[in-house]
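Exam review. A common question shows you a sequence with its structure tokens and asks you to describe the fold in words. Practice with the pair below. Do the first one on your own.
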Amino acid sequence: MYKRNLQILPEYIEDPSVNLIVSLINLMTSSKIMSGDPQLKDMTLKEIKKKFKENNITYTIYPTKDGRLKIRKPVQICRKEESDLLIELFRYYYGHDPDIDISVQGIYEEWIKYFKTTFVDTGHRSSLTCERYKSDWNKYYAGSDLASSDISNLKASKIKTFYAKISANETLTRRSLNNIKSILNQIYDYAVDHDYVSSNIARSVRTTDLICREEDNEDLVYSDDERYRIINQALKEDDVFARAIFLMFSLCVRIGELRSLKWSDIDWENRTVFIHAQIVRRKGDDGNYYFSYVNRTKGKKKEANRIQPLSDEAISLLKKQRKDNPFGEYIFMYNGDAVKTNTVNHHLKRICEKVGVKYLSSHKIRFWSVVNMSKEFNPAEVQYMAGHLDPATTDHYRKRVSRIGGVDTDKWNELYGLAK
């Protein structure tokens, strides 16, 4: 109480006891701010000297006529205390105070707070992404030698060794390894932006030579026959979930985009649907998860919005759905809210079991759509309809067309057969 109130009192207060208290408080506060605990300062001084020695940094301290200490090279610094002198020299070489934790762990803690406030809290990134980063950090980085390393001294070889260790014996898929790498890449980006390091060496570390576990379902996709059996069963059941599954098989959409569709997105005259939003799951400040409508697709830019045509069957299905749900906020609703992804997948699994098809999640419906478009349309058209901002993403699907469907037998025989 005294500290908070007395600091704002003018110094000319006549009561000497009050002045004494103010002076003592100011002295203690100033001492704490300027130099901290003497033992801590001695420790910092030892750490500074040790770091200079490790990095072959040499310096000479000269006394001045007025009793201060001075360094002339590489920069002129003059201070009363040796510790203050070396702290300034430390700042010169490393761009920050020696008491700032610039271990990989320390920078991670700064970065993850920045990521949440800058991207998650503003709705630009999902809270699930943030939770995945935290989970991967705790599983792979936390407690490791790399995490405790000074980021300004970390070598690319040590990062490579770390990746090789966690992926040894094919314990990780390539996708998992890339997700783990992306955390360190972003930590380094943050460190560069805050002048802790001058460059991002993490992005230069090559891991293509590391052997990763093959993903069992990487190329799994519904076949045309399986799609036909699923949508025919959906037409028989004809409830809100079956209709959602049917429409998803009639478009090229993500499940979050399908859930976010509103009646205003349908252009009945031109028989098209405007895909420009998604429903995402986020974690609130209370620790609970909730669903949120965001007016952008996964691409997060307007370039990822697209208009897709509707088939005759899709128009017919939507008319039925509008009759059953004419005033709902979303096209596909259940119990007063947009249908849930897990519930759609549950009904998809049940339909698959009925018609003897191996169940794949609703994401694989989109996979089927992009792969089959890649057989019929040019890359630019596929990229637009799929809502891909990066052509490389579209090319990723196009490459799988050849792996899934093989090559044209007639062309193969023509190329390698005996001339007649």
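Now try the second one, then compare your answer with the model answer below.
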Amino acid sequence: MEIIDGKKISNQIKEEIKVEVDSLKALGKKIPHLAAVIVGEDGASLTYVGSKVRSCKQVGFNSTLVKLAESITENELLDEIYKLNNNDSIDGFIVQLPLPKHIDEQKILLAIDPNKDVDGFHPTNFGKMALNMRTFIPATPYGIIELIKRYGIETSGKHTVVIGRSHIVGRPISILMNNKGQGGDSTVTVVHSKTKNIEFYTKNADILVSALGIPEYVKEHMVKNNVVIIDVGITRVKDHKTEKGYVIKGDVDFDSVSKKASYITPVPGGVGPMTIAMLLKNTLLSVGMRS
């Protein structure tokens, strides 16, 4: 069994990006500029956006953080989006989710210029991804594919089972792993809350990607020997024995399932660190596409 070290790979990718940025600087070319919009004071969102800003500094990007009050109206937020769309100095931007309940998330995401949508959530980019065209790929699925490639995990002809069908992870990773080329060419089955007898499918998976959000849902008896496990789940579980009062758990019961796996991502330290690295990669791509 080999642990897939997302932290190590994400740092490698950041180093590669930094080399490219240094080359752009040396040639007097434009430095990539990523902006992030955050509405309100959600603790987890502030931490995540702060991490993105630090990562920009690490690789030499310019960054802008747009902090807005939770009371902002939908139209006022749309005005901020249009400003970023029309700001030529900014190559890409993200709107941190979730948004306050009085704001229609779909309307906001649709307002983002697809050419600056480095989160890869706009229907234009999602459609291009489905057609295997060059575009921005949602960061978490993009990170999964990158981990698979860099660990030399064979996907061609394999049976991949994806648990979960969200637009952020489940649906896009099912498309990517079915596409032609390295990291793809897999036969993909997507299971979800309405699927009957999920274990039937998970037991027949060569590669299992779980993006369900239920801690330790996948147990040892649900998988076969030598399965590749990609655990996308990340849930805070109360634990008064710890200083923080909680522990982070994935969708997979790591201790038992790892005994049968050929490769497995830990939580934390697996897929999570890759998300920001791939967001940076998308921003670098945006510079190339816009120049």
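Model answer, second protein: The first strand starts at residue 2 and ends at 3. The chain has ten helices and eleven strands. Full marks require stating both points clearly.
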